Amino acid sequence: MLKDNLRSNKILRSIYIKFNYFLFKFIFKLSPKLSAELSYWKVFRSSVNWQNPKNLIEKIFWLQFNTDTKIWTNCADKYLVRDYVKKCGFEDALPKLYFKWDSAKDIDFDKLPNRYILKTNNGCGMNIIVENNSKINKKKTIRKLDKWLNEPFGYFAAQIHYLRIKPSIIAEELLENNDTYSSSLVDYKIWCFNGVPECILVVFDRKGSNYLLSLYDLNWKNISKENFNPNYKYCSYKDIPKPKSLAKMIELAKILSKEIPQVRVDFYDIDGKPYFGEMTFTSGFGVFSEDYYNYLGSKIDLSKIKRTQK
Fold this sequence. Notes:
Elements lengths: L1 H7 L1 H21 L1 H13 L11 H11 L3 H7 L4 H7 L9 E5 L14 E5 L6 E4 L7 H13 L9 H4 L5 E4 L14 E7 L2 E12 L2 E7 L7 H4 L18 H11 L6 E8 L2 E8 L9 H8 L13
């Protein structure tokens, strides 16, 4: 009942999100590892095995606290990652960048095209889609962006690399497709381990904070049923047509993830052309079955990774 009220009541949801943010910020200040532990317990109902991590999430936590994660910070930054993509030779896969600002008050809306997307560079889901620039509520938009800039993402689950990002705002080309099988742009998230793609998590039918997920192997076989957590509310077993640019997406993902123990590289397919979305190093968890988390964890050999003192 409480969860239903939070989803349907915007005011209650806003209060809950604010409370959760400051709670995890407080916990993080006490102990970053405690923040990781609590977020893990919430999903798995067990403690993180720090000494002998097995599943994917435990190993991601281990990497966060025991290795050099500078590349995580640079490539999770939605502005700086563009330089990394260019350096890898894939500038053509980047959406057009219109402007970058350090403060929302610096935005000159009159210089922007009619349709675009605004993003903060240091978070998750902090996007504003603008379909008609002449009708945008400038004051409301500036307030929302300033709030995102001043409440850094990363306290939940001790995602420390996000907290190292210098906050900014970017305006990018609004990517659009007319796929009849999804009410929104389809997001193809390729999970990679040291440059080897393993699976593709597909996100479709986005509406607000809701969406649906399907899972595929590299040959575009739907492997959702055997690998999803059946209790995860966003899981779907729906078949999504194979994107025309799948082979190119996989090729790009291999190079972008080379020598990175694990990362999710996200793409869009626009009329058969792949467009880069983002790189995610600490993906949310709960979507997969326990067995599949263990399987993905087996793809990371921690004994081959240089440990640093932190």
